[in-house]
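User: For a reading group we're discussing how well predicted structures match intuition. Take Ketosynthase family 3 (KS3) domain-containing protein. Before you show the prediction, I'll give you the sequence so everyone sees exactly what went in.
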Amino acid sequence: CDKQEWLLMPDTPKNVATNNQLAICANRFNYSFNLKGGSYLVDTACSSSLVAGHLGKVNLLERRWDPLEWHLGLGAGVTLTVGCFIGSCAAHMLSPIGRCLTFNATANGYNRGDGTAAMLLKAGAHDDQRYAFFRGSQMGQDGRSASMSAPNGPAQEKCVWGAIREAKMTPPESTVWECHGTGTSLGDPIEIGAVRKVQIKMPRLEPLMMASSKSNCGHLEGSAAAMGMNKCILMVIKCVSAPTIHLKTLNPHLDHAAFDAVFTTDAGPYKYKQGHAQVSSFGVGGTNGHAIFWGKGPAPVLDFKRILLDKMRKAPTRIVADGDDPSQWEYSGPSFDASPDEQYRVVYVKDPLTGEETFTYEKVLREAEPIEFYCTTGSHNDWGEDRMMEGDVPGLFYQEVDMPDSGELEFRILGDGDPDKAIAPETSTSRKLEPIVGPSKDLRTSWLVTAEPGAAVRIEFFAPDKGPKSIMWLLLKEE
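Assistant: Thanks. Here is the predicted 3D structure of Ketosynthase family 3 (KS3) domain-containing protein, as C-alpha cells, for the group to look at:
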C-alpha cells in the first residue's frame, strides 16, 4: 500500500517515528524474526518485487566479503483506503468494469488487487530444496519517454536482452512469456512489440505461449512481479502454461502475427518435460525488470511424433516383388522421384492378431490457388458449411455459434467451404494447442468444445499467409 494510505487510516498513531518510515516495513520483519542480514525496501512501483529479486541475486553472487546463505524477497500490495483509487481514476488508469482485459480489443485499464507473494533465493546446488533455477534477471529505466508513465518499447527490449545474455540462452528457448499485461490499450501493444523484436531474431520450433496473471488476480502493484515470478516457478515445475481469462478478441494493435506465438486461454502443456518461463514487470515511473526461470516437470512428456518416426524406421515400407519388372512391383512408400518439397500423409496400421506393423504413404496435393474464405462444419450446423466472417487482423476469421442441446460442440474448418480442403487437429481434442493439419481431404478429426446448451461460443481461426495456423474459442457472456 502507499505510505500515505497508512497515514490516513483512522486511529493510526501519527507521533510514532517508526510509523512514518517506509524502511520499517522491511526492518520490522528482521526485528520480528531476529534476522541479521541486510534489510531494505525497494520502491519502483509495479516492478518493485522483481527488482528486489534482481538485487537479491546480485547480493548472493557477491561471495568475496560476507557471503549470504539465502535471500528472501517479499512483495505486498494492499488497498486500505479509496485514496489511490481516486488518484488512479483521475489518471484514467483503472478499468471502468473492474477487470484486467489483458491482450483484449476492449482493454481499457487495470483493476487493483490485494495480494502478497515471496520468493527465497539460494546460491549453489540445492537439488533437494529447489523448485526452479533463477537463470537470469536485469533491470533498466525508460529515461525520457512520451510521458512520465508511458512505456518505452526499446528500453523494455534492452532489459529483456540483458537477462537473456546472463542466462546464456537464445530467444527460441523461451517456452512461456509471462507479460506485465496490465490490460491498457497503449501498454499491451508496446510490450508485445518488444517481445516480437526479441523473438524474430531466430526461428522457433514451437509457438511461444503468452500469458499474464493480472487477468486472474488483478494488478497487485508492489506485489505484481512477485506474483508473476511465483507463477513462472509453478509453470516450469508443472510444464503447463496457465490460462489468461477474459480474453475474447485479441487487440488488433498487438504485433503478434509477426512471430510464432499463441495467447493461452486454457492450460497449455509444454511439448517437452522442461522449459523456460520469462516474466516482465514495468514500473509506472519507467523502471523495468525481467527475470528468467528454468525447471523441469515430474514426468517426461511423450513425443508421439518421435515415437511414430522410430516405428517407421523399424518397420520400413513393404515391397512385393511380383514379376521381373520392378516398376510393376507393389510398393507402399513415397515416389522414387519425389522432390524435397512434396508432402505425404503416413498411415500406420498394426494388425491386432499378428502384431505386424505396416505403413502406407499418401501424397498430399497442394492447392494451386490460395484459399479465399473459411467455413465451419460440425454438430452446430449438422455438418453443413457456415461461412466465417473476416476479422480486423489479416488472416483472422471468426464465427459465433450456439452450443447444441448436448452441451458438446464438435467442429472442423473447411477452406472455401470445400470438404476436400478440411482443416482439423492431428487428433480429435478439446485442446487449442493441438497441431493443426490440412487443408486435406478425408480428415475426420475435430475440435471439441463443452459448455452449457445454448451458450454462445465465438470461434476464431487465424491463417496467416506465412506461419502456422491457430484456433481459439471463447464463451460469450450474455449482455
